[in-house]
Design brief:
Distance between the termini: 70 Å
CATH class of the largest domain: Mainly Alpha
Number of strands: 12
Strand order of the largest sheet: 6-9-10-3-11-12
Largest sheet: 6 strands, mixed
Radius of gyration: 36 Å
Strand content: 5-15%
Bound molecules: adenosine-5'-triphosphate, magnesium ion
Low-confidence stretches: none
CATH topology of the largest domain: ABC transporter transmembrane region fold
Mean pLDDT: 87
CATH architecture of the largest domain: Up-down Bundle
CATH superfamily of the largest domain: ABC transporter type 1, transmembrane domain
């Protein structure tokens, strides 16, 4: 694990080194203090030498100040290194998440990814901060004190042979049993984040359904689960403290008992016994520090594991087989016996044996009931998901042969659930093409029939869009998203139910505009209304993941029962309205 995380200390290793040196300096300086103290007693007081006492006292003050400076330095440097390490780790995780395909993200869930990027990183960096200091101080203290104690009395030191193994057993037990609790703790944090994230994103829905109380309850349940898990995890840790204290107390009692006998026997000086106590306390203190680190470490290990999971997740869709020079030349699309399912373990297919040929420049309508896999079908073209069996070809090449950038440059998809980002309208449109001129923006908006409402806004193209595009209407948002896609000048344009909130007349004008401005572009239009696809060159009717029919309006009317049924139901609607 350390090997996997070590690379992320890049740029901050020298600070870790300096922090370690400062900590070592601090410990050594502190160990010199008792020596000076005993010099005062043994030499200064014994010989009544006031100047010696004065100078030694002054030396002690200097030593203490130096130790303090080293301590502060160590803390500051360790903090700097730890924060840098955390930043590196977060950056690496974020970059990795950007490489993820949809199915990778669904595997972790967004909420869990957020915890892994924030909370988990914070815990690991905290461990690095505390660890660098204690990991140096504890061994230095332990070794020096042990050497001193052994020098005073080899016999009495045998007590440590009993105490130290006991302490090690206690630490091992804690690590074994507390580890899983900390894993559960991070999972509970995921759960809380999930509710917060979901509810805040959908706060309008929550309010419109007057669900605040229910949502509060839902949050309360998860929040108290988090509290209980934390109590259990830290309860174990707290339980560990009295055990340590007991061991320390026991050691002191044993030392007094055995040492007392030695003093009574005359085999040990009472002064030596006193000194032995001091060193024994130091040994136990350093062991306690080590066990504290171990405890922080158990949590950090749980967190680090979760971070490494993200870093090691294989992005499902990669460019490995791709030819970097290949660009999408034309918008011809072929589905060759395509099978697809979202979960490899699921029984049924989401798409079953789909074969389809779409010539370049064609306008294709895709119809089908909800859940008939229209969105799924088109998602395979820009390789948002990977086919399970069969192959998808774009411009005569398998989609896997293109780099993701080339493929997605060639296909613009207006997603069914689209979003705008906070920023001006122009900023949002330039997502489609960063170098677009104002004139190009205007043209694209004219085709998408977005110009009419943008011109009415007081700031026009500089109007600010709120996060998630909440200050424009549903239809306005859809039109902006279409304009954004048009700006890419793609070879393939996919509109997934993108005009559902636009009135029929505007819908027709948008289609007309697309035909005249993007004549060579293959256009795939998913729609609920037959009028939206009626004059398409080809209409594909999907039913439960299979192609039920394929042809022009007239052909389908003659041959396809589902199509006719949809047509009839929509005609009825028209006559009732009329
Ligand atoms: N990310 C996903 N993970 C798992 N299953 C999914 C996922 N997205 C869609 N599905 C399932 O795949 C099937 C087809 O869904 P799809 O979104 O393609 O339907 P659709 O035809 O676009 O429907 P709509 O008209 O409502 O948009 C549905 O049964 C749905 O439950
Ligand atoms: Mg859909």
């Amino acid at each position: 694990m350390i090997r996997k995380l070590a690379p992320y200390t890049r740029g901050y290793r020298k600070w870790i080194l300096f922090a370690v040196l400062c900590s070592a300096g601090e410990s050594v300086l502190e160990l010199l203090l008792p020596q000076a103290m005993s010099d005062i007693v043994d030499i200064g007081i014994a010989q009544s030498d006031r100047t010696y006492i004065m100078f030694t006292g002054l030396r002690m003050v200097v030593l203490a100040i130096l130790a303090l400076a080293c301590g502060v330095g160590a803390a500051a440097l360790a903090a700097r290194a730890a924060m840098g390490f955390g930043a590196n780790l977060r950056q690496a995780e974020y970059e990795q998440v950007q490489r993820f395909s949809f199915s990778n993200i669904e595997h972790f869930s967004t909420a869990s990814l957020i915890t892994r990027l924030t909370n988990d990183v914070a815990s690991t960096q905290m461990t690095l901060f505390m660890g660098t200091r204690i990991c140096v101080r504890a061994p230095v203290m332990l070794i020096t004190a042990l050497v001193m104690a052994l020098r005073i009395s080899l016999k009495l030191s045998q007590v440590f042979l009993v105490v130290v193994p006991l302490l090690i057993i206690a630490v091992v037990i804690v690590i074994r049993y507390v580890g899983p609790f900390f894993m559960a703790l991070q999972r509970s944090t995921d759960d809380v984040n999930l509710v917060v994230q979901e509810d805040l994103n959908a706060i309008r829905v929550v309010k419109s359904f007057v669900r605040e109380d229910r949502e509060k309850e839902k949050f309360a349940v998860r929040n108290s689960t988090l509290r209980d898990t934390a109590e259990r995890a830290f309860g174990f840790v707290v339980l560990f403290m009295p055990v340590i204290t007991l061991l320390m107390g026991g050691t002191i009692v044993a030392l007094m008992w055995i040492g007392g006998h030695y003093v009574a026997d005359g085999t040990m000086f009472s002064g030596d016994l006193m000194a032995f106590f001091t060193y024994a306390t130091e040994i136990l203190m350093s062991l306690m520090m080590v066990s504290m680190v171990m405890m922080i470490l158990t949590r950090a290990i749980a967190c680090a594991k979760r971070i490494i999971e993200v870093l090691e997740e294989q992005p499902e869709i990669t460019d490995t087989a791709a030819d970097s020079a290949l660009q999408v030349e034309n918008g011809e699309i072929t589905f060759d016996h395509v099978y697809f399912k979202y979960h490899p373990t699921a029984e049924g297919w989401n798409l079953t044996d789909v074969s389809l040929h779409i010539p370049r420049g064609a306008t294709v309508g895709i119809l089908g009931g909800t859940g008939s896999a229209k969105t799924t079908l088109v998602s395979l073209i820009p390789r948002l998901y990977e086919v399970s069996k069969g192959a998808v070809y774009v411009g005569g090449h398998n989609v896997k042969d293109y780099t993701m950038e080339a493929l997605r440059d060639g296909c613009a998809m207006v997603l069914q659930k689209n979003t705008l980002f906070s920023g001006t309208i122009a900023d949002n449109l330039r997502w489609g093409n960063a170098d677009a001129t104002d004139e190009q923006l205007r043209q694209a908006c004219a085709v998408a029939c977005a110009d009419e409402f943008i011109d009415q806004m007081p700031d026009g193209y500089d109007t600010h869009i709120e996060q998630g595009g909440t200050n424009v209407s549903g239809g306005q948002k859809q039109r902006l998203c279409i304009a954004r896609a048009i700006l890419r000048q793609p070879k393939i344009l996919i509109l997934d139910d993108s005009t559902s909130a636009v009135d029929t007349a505007t819908d027709a004008r948008i289609r007309q505009g697309l035909r005249s401005t993007l004549p060579g572009t293959t256009k795939l239009i998913i729609a609920q209304r037959i009028t939206s696809v009626r004059e398409a060159d080809l209409i594909v009717v999907l039913d439960d993941g299979r192609i039920s029919g394929c042809g022009t309006h007239e052909e389908l009317m003659a041959t396809n029962a589902i199509y006719r049924e949809v047509y009839d139901s929509q005609q009825e609607g028209v006559s009732i309205d009329g």
